[in-house]
Specification:
mainly alpha
Length: 111
């Protein structure tokens, strides 16, 4: 379901299709990289967030270039939001990791 309760292939292959496909590939990349033990530290974790956003923007921009010549304006408007989302993603990920690791440690000591 997309905006205004619309659906269909025209959304997947339309002007924003590259961003939608970018989400899939970014999720695969981030999921793979997050399995590395070092990724639980703040700097590598932030790097994974940034790589995910960069992949979404790269695929979306390449796709968008086929439809509109103003693609550079689009990239300039989305970069600040991507940076803010990466920072918040890092904070949320670190908080969740601390809670989960603390809980897992508790259960490992009890069993």
């Amino acid at each position: 379901v997309f905006a205004n309760y619309s659906s269909g292939a025209e959304h997947l292959f339309g002007i924003t299709g590259g961003f939608l496909f970018g989400f899939v590939f970014a999720a695969l990349l981030a999921g793979y990289l997050s399995e590395i033990p070092a990724a639980k530290k703040p700097l590598p974790c932030f790097g994974i967030w940034v790589l995910g956003h960069a992949l979404i923007l790269l695929l979306g921009t390449i796709w968008f270039m086929r439809f509109d010549s103003r693609w550079m304006e689009l990239v300039k408007t989305v970069l600040p939001g991507a940076a803010i989302k990466s920072a918040f993603g890092l904070l949320i990920t670190q908080l969740i990791l601390r809670i989960v690791l603390k809980r897992d440690g508790y259960y490992q000591l009890r069993s």
